[in-house]
Design a protein that fits this description.
Layout: H1 3-34, H2 45-67, H3 83-117, H4 127-131, H5 133-148, H6 153-170, H7 176-191, H8 196-210, H9 216-220, H10 222-226, H11 233-245, H12 249-261, H13 267-283, H14 288-303, H15 308-318, H16 329-338, H17 342-369, H18 380-389, H19 391-405, H20 411-429, H21 439-469, H22 472-483, H23 487-504, H24 507-524, H25 529-543, H26 551-560, H27 564-587, H28 590-598
Helix pairs in contact: 1-2, 1-20, 1-21, 2-5, 2-21, 3-5, 3-6, 3-7, 3-8, 7-8, 8-21, 11-13, 11-20, 11-21, 12-13, 12-18, 13-14, 13-15, 13-17, 14-15, 14-26, 15-26, 15-27, 16-24, 17-25, 17-27, 17-28, 19-20, 21-24, 22-24, 23-25, 23-27, 24-25, 25-27
């Protein structure tokens, strides 16, 4: 298959993705708006929503493969340019091609089994036809990895031959030594850039093969995922963040916060922390905040008299603030994986998230007091004008909070309304986006992140299933309880572990990989699951800044053209300050549990 053919397929997939996004937004809206009107609803709407999410997962995964946006370990960035990196990229592509090819085979088995059951959607479409998107997308992903593994056909044929050899190996009797060798190769490929979803599903395939279990068990576990009623909210909330990032919303929000806080000593630093926290709540800590706001707020800090060192450190650190605030995507993903209601987690994250924000703002005020820059006097007219200009963006979280907290709408319905509301504001009120020329491109970009996250999550289900069947969490629990007796010591060890892993693992990968292992440990030590979730996410938020390759460090280095080592020095004060905040969150459960208990959610 030629590059042109793959490009045409990718383009067609983009069109289907846009239509899927719009349908996914419309269906919950029909139920929400039709409920007051004689309780009108679409029959089987939940099933359609699940199937649309399923479709978006794999089409988005295909687009993420095409654009090279699948989630990988940050360690790949440390490889030097030249032959070493080219060899590593070949190994990574070869591994991804092998895993996706085997997943394609497994997916075909699942679809054939579904066809035999003969289930149909309410309008008569057989379910197996809808679910065929999984093996089709995975097969195309395998072809893309093969094609991009090398610049020459000799290298591509070599990868294809390796894929064939792996299928031949699958027909032989499993041997533990070969399984260990394959696992080692998979780990090495992951460290040098192979997607994390390939590592998760690949390890599941190896373990199931070693135990002589059909590899279709990995793909079959995906249906555990799409049954989650919270999952469809993830693509909708992701779309909100991408739409806002493509408009002039950052400029309007900066003006608003500058008008409110500009009169204070350090007011500019406070506005940077506040606007970044608000933006991160919508973009979910995916790095969009630094990319979208970094070039806007960094010159403002320099112009106000802050040093380059402080300004770089603040922008880098503020890029992860707001991770605990609604409607943050990592919070929802954690709720899906840990099976904890998202509303409880959002309420629990309000006080801890505000604490981290206030600590950063207080540091900015302390530094600002020592500057001799001219402060902007508070002007009511400017504050009102800035508020009026940013009223639509500011209304989005308010509307979401009112709808969800009052019980008017479910999380999915709230997300659908907010997505439609944001698109309407961007296209027809502010007119920052053309609904036909620009909006489809933005939705496709959002689908790439959605595909990367949900492909990882769905592929991880197979490995999680194996670990549960093999009683790995029980063994880990026994080991920890043997060596750690105090819950306080366990929490400290957990903080250190998450801090280190959070600097290497991308946050969505960390949630998927670590949550199933850590939740049982927290329960065993008597830690409330909601409090544990806040600890988990707050530590990962701190991991964005932790050397050697925390995500925010890497993004700031790319955005501002600064060496990573220089950024280590710049973020150190804020790393210490936020570290103190995380310890307070860890050892003061009232910060997490106070609001939910006060409102009767716990």
């Amino acid at each position: 298959m030629t590059l042109r053919a793959l490009s045409l397929i990718s383009g067609a997939g983009g069109g289907i993705v846009v239509a899927t996004f719009l349908l996914l937004t419309a269906m919950p809206l029909v139920d929400l708006l039709g409920r007051p009107l004689a309780n009108f609803h679409i029959p089987g709407a939940s099933t359609y929503t699940q199937q649309l999410t399923f479709c978006l997962t794999f089409l988005g995964g295909l687009l993420a493969t095409w654009t090279g946006k699948h989630l990988t370990l940050s360690t790949a960035a440390l490889l030097p340019e030249g032959r070493v990196r080219r060899t590593a990229e070949y190994l990574a592509s070869c591994t991804a091609a092998v895993v996706t090819a085997v997943l394609t085979y497994a997916g075909v088995g699942v679809v054939l089994a579904e066809r035999q059951q003969g289930q149909k959607l309410s309008f008569g479409l057989p379910v197996w036809i809808s679910e065929s998107v999984m093996p089709i997308a995975l097969g195309l992903m395998a072809l893309v990895y093969i094609y991009r593994s090398s610049r020459g056909w000799a290298g591509r044929v070599g990868v294809a031959a390796i894929v064939g050899a792996v299928f031949a190996l699958g027909l032989t009797s499993p041997a533990p030594s070969i399984a260990w060798l394959l696992g080692g190769l998979l780990l090495a490929a992951t460290l040098v850039g192979s997607p994390v979803f390939a590592a998760m599903s690949g390890m599941g395939l190896i373990l199931f093969w070693r135990d002589a279990t059909p590899v279709a068990a990995v793909s079959a576990e995906i249906y555990r995922l799409i049954a989650s009623p919270t999952l469809p909210a993830i693509p909708l909330l992701t779309a909100i963040g991408f739409v806002l990032a493509e408009t002039r919303a950052p400029h309007r929000l900066v003006r608003f916060f500058h008008a409110i806080f500009g009169f204070m000593p350090g007011g500019v630093a406070v506005l940077v922390a506040a606007v970044c926290a608000l933006f991160t709540a919508f973009t979910g800590g995916s790095g969009v905040t630094i990319i979208a706001l970094g070039g806007l707020v960094y010159p403002i800090l320099i112009e106000d008299g802050y040093s380059e060192r402080f300004s770089l450190g603040l922008v880098t650190a503020a890029g992860s603030l707001g991770l605990l605030f609604p409607p943050s995507l990592p919070v929802i993903l954690y709720s899906v994986v840990a099976k904890i209601p998202a509303d409880q987690l959002f309420l629990a994250g309000l006080a801890p998230g505000l604490l981290l924000l206030l600590l950063v703002a207080a540091h900015g005020i302390n530094v600002g007091r020592k500057l001799e820059s001219r402060r902007q006097p508070f002007m009511l007219r400017e504050a009102l004008a800035a508020t009026w200009e940013a009223k639509w963006e500011l209304s989005i979280p308010v509307v979401m909070l009112l709808m969800f907290a009052t019980g008017i709408a479910s999380l999915l319905e709230t997300s659908a309304f907010a997505c439609a509301y944001t698109i309407f504001i961007a296209c027809f009120i502010q007119r920052d986006l053309h609904p036909f020329k620009q909006l489809p491109r933005v939705l496709v970009s959002a689908a790439v992140l959605v595909g990367a996250v949900l492909t990882l999550l769905s592929c991880a289900m197979g490995l999680t299933s194996y670990l549960v069947d093999a009683q790995i969490p029980d063994l880990l629990l026994g080991f920890v309880k043997t060596h750690i007796e105090s819950p306080l010591v366990f929490l400290l060890a957990l903080n250190l572990l998450l801090l280190v892993l959070g600097s290497v693992l991308e946050i969505f990968s960390a949630i998927v990989v670590l949550t199933p292992l850590i939740v049982p440990l927290g329960v065993a030590f008597g830690i409330h699951p909601v409090h544990l979730g806040v600890i988990f996410l707050a530590n990962l938020e701190l991991g964005f800044l932790f050397p050697p390759v925390g995500l925010n460090l890497f993004l700031s280095s790319s955005r501002f053209g600064k060496p990573m080592v220089e950024l280590y020095r710049d973020v150190l004060p804020l790393l210490v300050i936020l570290g103190i905040g995380v310890l307070l969150i860890t050892y003061a459960p009232v910060l997490s549990l106070g609001i939910p208990r006060l409102l009767g959610f716990l």
